[in-house]
Specification:
alpha/beta, Nucleotidyltransferase, domain 5, 5-stranded mixed β-sheet, 3 helices, 5 strands
Length: 137
């Protein structure tokens, strides 16, 4: 009998299948992951190429200060919706196309502005806008 020295084969780890599996997992994760940004409000404002009207619409100036005192076309009015409504209706004289311009103090309450809008609705005036000023620093 011939006795040979048997070589003991060392077990090997084949890395190629392991790399293939890791690449497949990586590709799967890349495809299924959403790259969503934080919630943003994207607004695309409409554009118009209209010409300016040659005549300005008739307006009613309504002002309210931080203490809740009202003026309609620079005349003091009581701080009630009924008084505001009758003052605006008297100026409009049935002309529903008049524009109500609200000049509210920055410290005026929200309710005082809502009162003006409600009075305009009761007077039959639906065209309302707010006056602002630019900050020239």
């Amino acid at each position: 009998m011939q006795f040979r020295n048997r070589r003991h084969d060392e077990p090997e780890i084949n890395l190629i299948p392991l790399i293939d599996v890791l690449l497949v997992i990586l590709i799967f994760l890349m495809v299924t992951t959403t790259y969503a940004r934080y919630s943003e409000l994207k607004i695309n404002l409409p554009t118009a190429a209209g010409e300016a009207s040659p005549q300005k619409p008739q307006t009613i100036q309504v002002a309210v200060d931080s203490l809740g005192h009202y003026q309609v076309n620079e005349k003091n009015v009581a701080a009630s919706t009924e008084a505001l409504s009758s003052a605006m209706a008297g100026i409009a004289k049935g002309n529903a196309e008049m524009v109500v311009i609200i000049n509210a103090d920055s410290k005026a309450t929200h309710q005082s502005v809502i009162n003006i809008m409600e009075a305009a609705r009761r007077a039959g005036l639906a065209r309302i806008t707010f006056a602002t000023q630019t900050n020239n620093d």
